[in-house]
């Protein structure tokens, strides 16, 4: 059932061109510039009128929420707060009747996320569920929602579920933006076309798999890792670090690149691998200077760059290229090399990648 692969995780990583396409199928029609999210249509007016959106989730799903924060703010110009479900539910959160809560959960069974939406519901909020498992508790407890069509995810470390969540949240942000008129038709159409191209661009990232395996071999016995990114690539840095921790048991931290100088820079020496998300986007120049700061302290830098970048390869130890895309879609590509890097490192360390110690696929206890 692993389809010839050694582990479910690697099978699921390589399934992403299809799982992303499946999550858009019947919703996105790039040729006709049409976007339709059936599950949301009855609540579209509420979404458009909302003053604020609160996103709740745990782990990787929380990271997808952080990506969505950028998307909804940038495209739909709405206030977004992203909360760990476990923190949200035990505070006394201010929730008003016209608030929208988006719950993100692969399994649809995460106890803290379920409790968070029950709390928000009791205060009159409208709940949208973004779940992968059809008929799951969170899907049933939501007023409306959109499923991710990632297919069953067996590996404990979430991979294809994350990119499917980001895909569906992008469609949602675009649908709201279009309805609100916060983006031009031209940008809307360009983004639909770019989304349509994402599955084939993910396939292009896979061409670097051998190179990533070589890098993994070099860093197999690293004791620590730092992942740095800015903007939309900040949550990707968090996700890269989480993937590495959970399956290889290497201590890893994700950080916003600019925050590094407020503390973590003290960790940098010739033994510290630093993964930079350094794609050509609006924070490119800033990332370049962050890379200089790390190199000046002899850190070993692995940079995820946009295809054709000629500057960063002269500055760093290793580069992994991803195809160019519209800035807001970057996470769908930049996360892929990080999934592969953590997978290969974990395999080389002899870890049980599909079932890491102490972890369960769905966390139904708080
Ligand atoms: C990370 C991972 C966990 C889950 C988290 C939420 O690889 O698997 O961090 O993302 O437990 O699970 P769901 O999305 O099922 O609510």
UniProtKB/TrEMBL annotation:
Keywords of the record: Aminotransferase, Cytoplasm, Glutamine amidotransferase, Repeat, Transferase
GO cellular component: cytosol
Top-level taxon: Bacteria
Start and end residues of each SIS domain: 43-182, 215-356
GO biological process, one term: protein N-linked glycosylation
A GO molecular-function descriptor: carbohydrate derivative binding
Catalytic activity: D-fructose 6-phosphate + L-glutamine = D-glucosamine 6-phosphate + L-glutamate
Subcellular compartments: Cytoplasm
Record: active site: 361 (for fru-6p isomerization activity)
Keyword NADP: no
EC assignment: 2.6.1.16
Function statement: Catalyzes the first step in hexosamine metabolism, converting fructose-6P into glucosamine-6P using glutamine as a nitrogen source.
Quaternary structure (record): Homodimer.
Protein name: Glutamine--fructose-6-phosphate aminotransferase [isomerizing]
Organism encoding this protein: Dyadobacter luteus
């Amino acid at each position: 059932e692993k389809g010839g692969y050694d582990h479910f995780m690697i099978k699921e990583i390589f399934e992403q061109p299809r799982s992303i396409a499946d999550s858009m199928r019947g919703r996105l029609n790039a040729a006709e510039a049409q976007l339709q999210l059936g599950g949301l249509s009855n609540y579209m007016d509420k979404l458009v009128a909302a003053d604020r959106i609160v996103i709740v989730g745990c782990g990787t799903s929380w990271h997808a929420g952080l990506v969505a924060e950028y998307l909804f703010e940038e495209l739909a110009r709405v206030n977004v707060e992203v909360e760990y479900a476990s923190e949200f539910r035990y505070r006394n959160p201010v929730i008003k009747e016209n608030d929208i809560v988006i719950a993100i959960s692969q399994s649809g069974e995460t106890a803290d996320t379920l409790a968070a939406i029950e709390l928000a519901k009791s205060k009159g909020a409208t709940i949208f569920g973004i779940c992968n498992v059809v008929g799951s508790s969170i899907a049933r407890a939501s007023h409306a929602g959109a499923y991710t069509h990632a297919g069953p995810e067996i590996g404990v470390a979430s991979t294809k579920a994350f990119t499917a969540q980001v895909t569906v949240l992008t469609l949602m942000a675009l649908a709201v933006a279009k309805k609100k008129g916060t983006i031009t038709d031209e940008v809307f159409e360009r983004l639909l076309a770019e989304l349509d191209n994402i599955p084939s661009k993910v396939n292009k990232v896979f061409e670097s798999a051998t190179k990533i395996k070589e890098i993994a071999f070099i860093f197999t016995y690293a004791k620590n890792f730092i992942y740095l990114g800015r903007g939309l690539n900040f949550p990707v840095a968090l996700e890269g670090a989480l993937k590495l921790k959970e399956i290889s048991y290497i201590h890893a931290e994700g950080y916003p690149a600019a925050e590094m100088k407020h503390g973590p820079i003290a960790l940098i020496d010739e033994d510290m691998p630093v993964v930079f998300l350094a794609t050509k986007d609006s924070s490119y120049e800033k990332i370049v200077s962050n890379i200089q700061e790390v190199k000046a302290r002899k850190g070993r830098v692995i940079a995820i760059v946009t295809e054709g970048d000629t500057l960063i390869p002269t500055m760093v130890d290793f580069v992994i290229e991803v195809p160019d895309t519209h800035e807001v879609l970057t996470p769908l590509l930049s996360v892929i090399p990080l999934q592969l890097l953590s997978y290969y490192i974990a395999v080389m360390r002899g870890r049980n990648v599909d079932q890491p110690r102490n972890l369960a696929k769905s966390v139904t206890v708080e």
